[in-house]
């Protein structure tokens, strides 16, 4: 018996295997990084500006003061507060007594000196936005698990639409809970204004998307993630009155529309399952009539 032609792998299977390989490689890299002493920190304040915007995931490796260089971004405990929060600032100066001074790119020089005991490590990688994904992981996992259960309970023709709807609802829930897209934060108090002028404030963008800030008294500023700018807002009842809108270029909206339509296009293009083969009905042997008495037929006996 000759072997048949080799089976061709479908593009979908190749993509699934490639995605699985990427996920396994990423997990292996994370495990190796952790085993070798590294850990991760999520940026929660805008003090480092565009170098590490809010929501950035920092990859921190253990280091000693002798290994540091001026300009490195390091993670450390505030001197004298071991159990307190950690800071990630830039090394400003290395001192002869084995300590070093730090500064934030936006917040300016720090008022302390950090020694070997308070040093946590040196930042080797900074992934903007990845910290937001880590923050939303509980919502994404819960939504993904619920979607998988619902999809498993329906028949095959309804799996893809339900999966798309479940993914959209999960992403919407994560955005509503954590609001990662557009936000601004004030850096310090408002600057005093001269006679007849409007006081100005310095704001920094802390969202994932660039924003445009406009004031009713005139003037606007466009800020990317981690960028700071000065604007003169209207102050009513102690609150700043500003018009905040996402400053997304048109091609980004085109990509979003294409991504939303992609599942429908794939579902329409992909052929459905072939119909089940029809089982042939059992053949019946015809009866032959033999001549006999009038009005009677003698059937042919079976052998």
From TrEMBL:
Residues 271-280 have a biased composition (Pro residues). The chain crosses the membrane at residues 12-35, 136-154, 161-181, 251-269. GO terms for biological process: signal peptide processing. GO terms for molecular function: serine-type endopeptidase activity. PROSITE patterns: PROKAR_LIPOPROTEIN (PS51257). Residues 281-303 have a biased composition (Basic residues). The keyword Transmembrane applies. Residues 269-303 are annotated as: Disordered. CDD domains: S26_SPase_I. Keywords: Membrane, Transmembrane, Transmembrane helix. InterPro entries: Peptidase_S26 (IPR019533). This is Signal peptidase I. The lineage of its organism: Bacteria, Bacillati, Actinomycetota, Actinomycetes, Propionibacteriales.
